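new request in #modeling-help
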Amino acid sequence: MDPKRDTRKPSNLHRVIKFYEEHAKDYDKDYEEDNWRLYDDLTWHFMAPYIPAVDPAVAGTRGAPVALDAGGGTGKWSIKLAKLGFRVTCTDISRQMLDQARAKAAVEGLEGRIDFRLLDARDMPGIASESCDLVLAVGDLVSYALDDDLVVGELFRVCKPGCHCIASVDNTFSYLILQLKSERWELIDDLLDNKVTDYSSPHPVRTYLPADLGALFERHGFAVEQVAGKPVITNTVSKRVRRLKLEQHYEELLELEKRFGADPAFVGHGGHLQIAARKPA
Ligand SMILES: C[S@@+](CC[C@H](N)C(=O)[O-])C[C@H]1O[C@@H](n2cnc3c(N)ncnc32)[C@H](O)[C@@H]1O
């Protein structure tokens, strides 16, 4: 086996799997809360311009464009893409998350459009090279896998030339601020040197500054088209104030986040970072 593709090396994946095994049933409930609803609205806002249009004549058929939703979890984005007419492959390392996704797709009558596969994104042998018109890895898959080169290498391999990959990760800067607020000075050097932390996370995560994220995708051959912060304004205030303000002014705050999220002056403040990258034609 090519050592670069050796996924047997020690990783944190057993901790990721355990966490989602325990939380799969409640996962979607968290996103009903305003803070996470805002996060989802921004994920969609910054992703939508890169989603190819589906010709209504082929929507949902074998001739429809193909999307890969890697680390697709409970199928939130897979279902949205299936409704747009894509044929979707939703992969995840967690059987329990995929079970939730499958059940939701069945309720929507979309089982026929989504293929669910238990697969580690670091090595996806069942997904053919250059077979996907859109590749998603949103919701921190790249951060959780730690072996980010393996994952992004796979995302690049399966993406068709000229098509886009959208991925989101944890931001080093937002962990730095969390650690400063709680005066965990002893953790800061390690965060900045290694970019990996398990502070306030159930398993270690790899964090990125916008330039690190761009460099990761570029070294695998992608051209970076956008890096956005999600969110860049509401995460600068305390949780209590944020909850209150979102309760009172959700739509106004969402508009501000959309306006400033991809502005280079603010991106680095993002709670998370989302990249849109294109595989050259
Ligand atoms: C925060 S959830 C995001 C789920 C979904 N993409 C969303 O945005 O709602 C992260 C998902 O990544 C999955 N995951 C983590 N590491 C993975 C890996 N190496 N391969 C496949 N899935 C992985 C987890 O099991 C979990 O379902």
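bot summary: The chain has one domain: 3-278.
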